[in-house]
Amino acid sequence: MRCLGLCLALVPFSASAFERAPHPSEAPMEPCPSQGAGFFRIPGTASCIRLSGRVTAGADVGPRHRAVPVQGRIAVDTRTDSALGPVRSFVRIEAGQR
């Protein structure tokens, strides 16, 4: 019986957990020239982000038929100013074969 009472008491809290959180801003991303070319300010924050990447592909036209070399790379660079100075995070992921 205690378990049923506890479950019924938690129902209002669990229902509110599934509500969608409001977006910080519906405005489009603005350029962030203070951090460099290609950076955009994340709406509702003081952080700037730059997404970059590339894909390369080649063709093997020799008598041996091998796999086509394909490579890809994506990089995420975020920067923000803090009370202690600038904070930066950088992640680069590469995949493919040569």
TrEMBL record:
> Where does the UniProt annotation locate this protein?
Cell outer membrane
Q: Which domain of life is it from?
A: Bacteria
The answer to whether keyword Transmembrane applies is: yes
Gene Ontology MF, one: porin activity
Q: InterPro entries, from UniProt?
A: Porin_alphabac
Q: Which GO terms describe its biological process?
A: monoatomic ion transport
Quote the cellular component terms of the Gene Ontology held in the record.
cell outer membrane; pore complex
Cited Pfam families: Porin_2
Ion transport among keywords: yes
Membrane topology term reads: Multi-pass membrane protein
Q: What is its main location?
A: membrane
* Swiss-Prot/TrEMBL keywords: Cell outer membrane, Ion transport, Membrane, Porin, Signal, Transmembrane, Transmembrane beta strand, Transport
| Signal peptide feature range | 1-17
The UniProt family comment states: Belongs to the alphaproteobacteria porin family.
Outline what the protein does: Forms passive diffusion pores that allow small molecular weight hydrophilic materials across the outer membrane.
Give the domain section of the comments.
Consists of 16-stranded beta-barrel sheets, with large surface-exposed loops, that form a transmembrane pore at the center of each barrel. The pore is partially ocluded by a peptide loop that folds into the pore lumen.
State the protein's name.
Porin
Annotated source species: Methylorubrum extorquens (strain ATCC 14718 / DSM 1338 / JCM 2805 / NCIMB 9133 / AM1)
